[in-house]
Fold:
Amino acid sequence: MNQQPENKGTSPMAKHSLGASLSQARNLQPHSLETVMGWRYIWATTIFVWLLSLLPWRSWAITPDILLVVIAFWSFHEPRRMGMVAAFCFGLTLDVHDVGPLGLQALLYALVVYGTQLLHRRLMRFDLLRQAMHLVPLFVGAKLVTVLIGTFIVSAWPGWAWLPGVLLTVACWPLVGWLLLLPQHRMDDVGTGIR
Structure:
């Protein structure tokens, strides 16, 4: 009794080819970093850069914070694997290592990760260089927040000596991103037969 109206504009052959193409489309998997790089690669690169961050060169004011770039990069590309909790924990370890006010680095890392995840849709449209340009206000603003809190805690303004270090940190985004994506590019080349 309850019959669906028949679509008179579509022939049975067209229905079959349309159905076949739709069934093939369902079998396609999105090409993401997760299929090429697993959680081991993400955490290995992050822990390696964290160990490099424990070296004494980090105490210079103009030194870029490569760990912050790596954490922000992975939280941008793999937010389920590198989130604000991980960033906060890495920041706490650096706070303890630097013997500074506890929580400032952790807050900086958490703010940057939150900002990169918030800007995810916008940043996906751009290449690494343009992503870095969009991240300049985020990195500078997050660092300014932590500098103001640190100024309140110790009652002394540190000046603007931190600004070149933050700008160098953002300038490292394209290079670090390119290096971290190298295994994906190699896998793409192997899949296409390019050597």
